[in-house]
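Subject: two folds for Thursday's group meeting

Dear M.,

Sorry for the delay on this. The cluster queue was jammed most of the week, so I only got both jobs back this morning. I'm pasting them in the order they finished. Each block is the input sequence followed by the predicted structure tokens. Could you check whether the formatting survives your parser before we put anything on slides? The first protein is the one we discussed after the seminar.
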Amino acid sequence: MNARSASPAEGSTSAPAPRRVLVWDAPVRVFHWLMVLSFAGAYITAESERFRLLHVTLGYTLAGLVLFRLVWGLAGTRHARFSDFVRGPAAVWRYLRSLVGGRAEHHVGHNPAGALAILLLLGLSLAVTASGFLLDNQLTGEWVEGVHEAVANTMLAVVLVHVAGVVFSSWLHRENLVGAMITGRKTARPEDGIRSAWRSVAAMMLVAVLGFWWLQWQAAPAAGDMPQVAGHAGQQDHDAD
């Protein structure tokens, strides 16, 4: 007799048939796409003095988003909470082995490997913004610039691996994980869904981010008054010599 192992996210055969249910609340989805925008924009503008204010603004936005996610990971909806998806190394290893064995565990929320990527991205985001703050305010030596770039490149590598994992999982489980992070809905048992999207919290987060961007724009100095960062100032002194 053949038996199929199921993850805790799956139910018995007597359970109601799966259907499209709400899994990701609005704050999680808004956080996700704002984080994508902030990191991508900050990374692209990292080498441009012309877009330095945009780079700094997006970096601080990234830090604020991470702080929100830490709070929401404790007080948010079911699948947003760290307790729902953060697992130890053994669970990650078991999940990866299930992929190789062709009997991949299915999880309604984040799978253990995806959870590991999320934790890495949150930690790297704090590290890159902290080093960026020190660099922006010239609070330490020039070595921090190397640290800042190394952390940013490491974060980019984790992002690429995460994206590849999402594409592979979407193909393996025949579900559109990118689409789910837009609509918030996945195919699951009704009892695995959440009751409310908490759109009001998402709206407040979006207003806070847009308000911060507006304040940064209003406080922007004129082009001729932009201060030179240490690297560019040092290059000018070298040219003068």
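Second protein, same layout:
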Amino acid sequence: PVEQKEFDPNALRICFVVGDELAENDRDITALETLLASGILTAGGPENIEFDSIPYEGSAREIAMDRIRTEIMAGGGPDVFIVTTQGSNSLFPIPEKAMQEGVFLPLDTYIQDMAQSEWDKLTPAVLEAGRTDEGQVLVPMMYTLPITIYKKEDVPEAPPAGTTWQEMLSDETNILRNAAVMTNDVSGGLLPDTGGSMLSVLGRFTDYETNELLFSEEDLLQCAKAMLTLKDEIDRDDTLPVYAQGMLCGNGRLTFDEQSSEKYPICKNDAMTMIPLYSKDGDVTATVQAYTGINRNTKHAEEAFFVVDYLMRVDVQQNFKLFYMLGQNYGLPIHEDVLSPEFPQQKNGFFFTDENFETFSGVRDQITNVYFDNALVRSLSGLYSTLYYDYTYEGKELPEQALKDAVHETYGALKQMLSE
């Protein structure tokens, strides 16, 4: 049996759920915890902090997560959760379900009375994803969305807000068709989107209050089919202007002084046109990559809120390793000033030029749907990438039956996950 660590009941207990996007071993996790504790202390926060570390990998990780879940159900557990690992490898495989089940403390009164950060500067649509009928219960820290970026000189303007996926598909120039399906081979400084962004095309996805899917198996079949055949067509179109494509993140070539190259055709000083992937209803969908929240069972609510509030500070989102490391590959900070020339990330200055920051802000303001990057989202992504790599990528014809079977299996798995 694993020896159970005894926690000081007077200490603020922080559970940092970190995976390979921030660490490569347990030592890296400890180093991050030390950084966070000293930052909180310097900011005038609680001194007596203990970390409830979840090991980096293996059975020890599973055992630690099971122990913490059991403690929470029994009325105990850590005070603060800081989560950067999503899907089934995380403490909360579907954060939205944990929110509905009342695991987290509602924060509205603390935000009103105690906040030192500028909560009105946090991207509203993304913040909204952490709300239930009780108020703000989880606070997103980082998010991302699928995007295609052209040089402004090649594509002078983006389509209007509210454009639908079907309209993107019917664009005869292929400029918008190319943006209607994410590729894996042209990342250009963005995170490649191996999931094909099925979530973004389906748009409104799940009702977590009723635990129902908001699309049919037929919808999923049509979506997967269109994306896979379209992908094949676009790969053969050599008339497209240069572009970068994938999940938008802050520390790519788009925000740092690098020269253009074959691998990175669009760079910081190029004026950009950014085209989000619209859904069939004209929505722009973002996914939350990292979040924080407070255990409803906490006996240290004010100290716990200090930590959550600290993580929302503009200087922390600029310079704390969690934000800029995740920013390199995983997303964008929720504080809306970060990545502008005035508030670059990291000392060496990752930021969008004034013109590109304005373009980025225009896309950010169009976000209408936000989901946590949860086990359901991962399952959808898996459907696309499996079919893509087994068939399209290999240059093979995708048999209709194989597609139907894969969709049927995934749809069943999604319903199963929701009902558990």
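Two things I noticed about the second structure. Residues 348 and 358 are 21 Å apart (CA to CA). The radius of gyration is 21 Å.

Cheers,
T.
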